[in-house]
């Protein structure tokens, strides 16, 4: 039986409706953040009952899904008022307040307060906290996630939410009457991972020569790891599979040159170690009138991290060899 069903039965919720419960997920107070690959991101599940026609939240249950990978259960609250929703003060699903991890989704996060004033079983045994989320934001739970290593836009989404609220004017005698609190807005947390490789310019002149910096940013979680930046003039697809990692380049003679002639023009600093922030800079150098036959050709670059294993590949960046 799902926790939301248990909430409805155990809290003795009648058919009447209380205030709407609006839910959102934020990180450091923001609903949209930019992160580096592999960064550990803390987030909060925040709720607010839409008006004061209640005496606060009685119970809630939500599922959370992250499009960028699996989530670990949220932390069990240890301080008031949310500790009243967690066992032993309150009641939760068997896996606990933080939710049950299932196929990357956290199911049945949350719990209910001891609104029926249990005295015949060991739990729940807590004192009801009133005013929770009543017309004001309340952090209902907190957790963390690891940002994906690949660039893109990801989201932490709320689904299957249900809640009850203590009815207005209730005093707890003989128990706390509760009502269904319809779920209103459910706002996701948006996580954007910029390209792990960016070029300072999208072209360089073959006739006059020049250089373009290629900026590597694999995130601080990859600090001090060795990288190998590789080139291709053939294309970016299909990618090359290295173990479970896909390098978005079609290998060709230029690839072989960049592999065999490390840190040599035209690609400087293509094999080295990232700094403490997981960053480095390589440079594509084109001498004047060196490659006139390549005017108009796009040159692609991408990198892999090679120690202790190859488990990270960047996006590809393209620089056109202009006249």
Task: Describe the fold and architecture.
The chain is mainly β. It has 2 helices and 23 strands. It has helices at residues 3-10, 253-260; strands spanning 21-26, 32-34, 40-49, 57-66, 100-102, 105-112, 138-146, 152-166, 178-180, 183-187, 189-193, 197-199, 203-205, 210-217, 226-232, 240-242, 245-247, 267-268, 271-273, 279-286, 298-305, 312-313, 317-322. Strands 2, 4, 5, 6, 8, 9 and 11 form a 7-stranded mixed beta sheet that branches. Strands 13, 15, 19, 21, 22 and 23 form a 6-stranded mixed beta sheet that branches. A 4-stranded mixed beta sheet has the order 7-3-1-10, with no helix packed on it. The longest helix is centred in the N-terminal third of the chain and has 8 residues, at 3-10. The chain is elongated, with a radius of gyration of 27 Å. The N and C termini lie far apart (69 Å). Mean pLDDT is 92; it is low at 4-15.
In short:
The chain has 323 residues and is mainly β. The chain is 5% helix and 41% strand.
Which helices and strands, and how do they pair?
Layout: H1 3-10, E1 21-26, E2 32-34, E3 40-49, E4 57-66, E5 100-102, E6 105-112, E7 138-146, E8 152-166, E9 178-180, E10 183-187, E11 189-193, E12 197-199, E13 203-205, E14 210-217, E15 226-232, E16 240-242, E17 245-247, H2 253-260, E18 267-268, E19 271-273, E20 279-286, E21 298-305, E22 312-313, E23 317-322
Parallel strand pairs: 1-10, 2-11, 13-23
Antiparallel strand pairs: 1-3, 3-7, 4-6, 4-8, 5-6, 8-9, 8-11, 12-14, 14-20, 15-19, 15-21, 16-17, 18-20, 21-22, 21-23
């Amino acid at each position: 039986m799902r926790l939301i069903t248990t909430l409805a039965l155990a809290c003795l919720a009648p058919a009447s409706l209380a205030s709407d419960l609006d839910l959102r997920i934020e990180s450091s107070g923001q609903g949209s953040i930019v992160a580096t690959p592999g960064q550990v991101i803390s987030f909060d599940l925040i709720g607010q009952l839409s008006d004061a026609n209640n005496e606060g939240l009685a119970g809630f249950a939500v599922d959370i899904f992250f499009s960028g990978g699996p989530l670990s259960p949220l932390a069990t609250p240890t301080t008031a008022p949310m500790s009243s929703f967690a066992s032993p003060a309150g009641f939760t699903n068997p896996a606990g307040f933080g939710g049950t991890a299932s196929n990357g989704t956290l199911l049945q996060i949350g719990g209910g307060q001891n609104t029926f004033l249990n005295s015949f079983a060991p739990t729940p045994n807590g004192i009801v906290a009133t005013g929770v989320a009543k017309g004001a934001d309340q952090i209902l739970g907190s957790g963390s996630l690891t940002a994906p290593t690949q660039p893109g836009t990801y989201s932490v989404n709320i689904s299957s939410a249900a809640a009850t609220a203590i009815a207005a004017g209730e005093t707890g005698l003989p128990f706390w009457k509760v009502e269904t609190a319809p779920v209103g807005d459910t706002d996701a947390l948006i996580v954007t991972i910029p390209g792990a490789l960016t070029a300072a310019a999208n072209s360089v002149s073959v006739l006059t020569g020049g250089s373009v910096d290629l900026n590597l940013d694999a995130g601080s979680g990859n600090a001090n790891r060795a990288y190998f930046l590789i080139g291709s003039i053939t294309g970016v697809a299909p990618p090359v599979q290295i173990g479970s990692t896909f390098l978005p380049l079609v290998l060709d003679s230029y690839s072989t040159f960049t592999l065999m002639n490390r840190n040599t023009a035209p690609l400087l600093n293509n094999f080295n170690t990232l700094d403490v922030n997981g960053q480095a800079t390589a440079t594509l150098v084109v001498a004047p009138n060196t490659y006139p036959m390549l005017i108009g050709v796009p040159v692609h670059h991408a990198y892999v991290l090679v120690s202790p294993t190859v488990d990270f590949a960047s996006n590809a960046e393209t620089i056109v060899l202009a006249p």
